[in-house]
Amino acid sequence: MRDRYVIAMALLVTAALVGGVAGPAAGAQPTIETSAETAPTAHAVDGPGIQQTGDDGADTCEFPVELTDATGTTITLDEPPERITTTNPSAAQTLWEIGAQDRVVGVTQYAAYLDGAGEKTDVSAEGFGVNVERVVNTDPDLVLAPNASAGQVADLREQGLTVYHFPAATSVQDIAEKTETIGRLVGDCEAAAETNEEMNQAVADVENRTADFDRPAALYPLGDGYVAANNTFINEIMEIGGTDNVAAAEGDGYPQLSNEVILQTDPELIIVTDPEAPILEEEPYASTTAGTEGNYVVMNVNYLNQPAPRSVIESTETLATAVETLQTEDDGTAGSEDGADGEDSTDDGEDSTDDGEDNTDDSEDSATDESDSDDGTSDGDDSSESQVPGFGVVTALIAALAAALIARR
């Protein structure tokens, strides 16, 4: 890390570029989908754990369908829902990914970055959570409620709505299962399976890519000492992306660490969602190795904080690129010390800033309330391919520019 390079490879503010819908202000503290009920889960990329099969053993997506949710409630759908409302951005991101966005009638403000989300009804409450009356007014056939909305499921059901509540997603396997469940509920099983296949392949590719690199000690601070620790989907993204999360040994979920503990963990790389990375100028972060050497990676707040397939694909790829660049610089095999090439892309890439989707939605409850939210901070989605359902080419072009972004702090 001796070259003191700033690694800033951001999948930049999609909200400003896709759909023309503004998200939360840049640099806002992320809200992350998390939960106190989160239990340890093994890392797995083998695909979804829920498979609906018919008597002949073939995959089926027929209706009526009965599925039991995280509350132990069995919901029945006689036919594919035509009007779907989501209470967290991670569920919205997944619906966009499998091509069901045309049937979505209600989303939260943190799904604003999704292409066309501005045409949907905003069901967000003034603070966190959703406005029950607004949800009712969307006249939904189905409400998808990830864990961050757990406290409002009963209220929505009291209004006669059909609500499927998801458990906390703390791993790639959990996200795959949630994706397949959503596909089953809305009648898009094949698209859900294809999405999971793409995600799992992307994870395998990133893990292979970073296998021979040293793993820098990394930290994702959420503000006020809160960090993403063990048994969170963010921790898994950090591991897949080629880093060692120093907060993992400090507890589960999103604990608040003292300045002394943060200094003891001494991260070599800080993960941020604000391209200006102001936190590196603050103590205790300024006194860590990452702070003194100016090593940080800018991540798209929506993707990093929203447990959904596109979030996994984009976040792990971005982080792996940062680790690879750090490793190259540390080996002294990078280009000139002036970093001229990287600075050019910095100018091109830093123009946009995004405030993740669930970053405040699926992480739906702020980092401080993390124990109550599952879809953490952002339920983000972005794609690195030229054409990804509902995301558009502009995002892909920016991702390509951002991947090369290296600037001297």
List key phrases describing it.
12 helices; Rossmann fold; four-stranded parallel beta sheet; 31% helix; alpha/beta; disordered C terminus; globular; five-stranded parallel beta sheet; 409 residues; single chain
Quick description:
By secondary structure, this protein is α/β, with parallel strands linked by helices.
Distance between the first and last residues' Cα: 13 Å
As residue ranges, the low-confidence spans are 1-31, 34-58, 333-409
Outline the biggest β-sheet: 5 strands, parallel
CATH superfamily: Nitrogenase molybdenum iron protein domain
Q: Which strand-content bin applies to the residues?
A: 5-15%
At CATH level 3, the topology is Rossmann fold
What proportion of the residues is helical, as a percent range? 25-40%
Tally of DSSP helical segments: 12
One letter per element, helices H and strands E, the order comes to EEEEEHEEHEHEHHEEEHEHEHEHHHEHE
User: Any idea how many domains?
Assistant: 1
Overall 3D shape:
globular
- Give the quaternary arrangement of the chains: single chain
Give me the Rg, rounded: 20 Å
Which CATH-level-2 architecture? 3-Layer(aba) Sandwich
Outline the structure in words.
This protein has 409 residues and is of the alpha/beta class. The protein has a single domain, classed as Rossmann fold. The chain is 31% helix and 12% strand. The protein has 12 helices and 17 strands. The strands form 6 sheets. Strands 7-6-5-8-9 form a 5-stranded parallel sheet. A 4-stranded parallel sheet has the order 13-10-14-15. Strands 1-17 form a two-stranded antiparallel sheet. A hairpin with a 2-residue loop joins strand 11 and strand 12. Helix 4 packs antiparallel against helix 5. The longest helix has 22 residues.
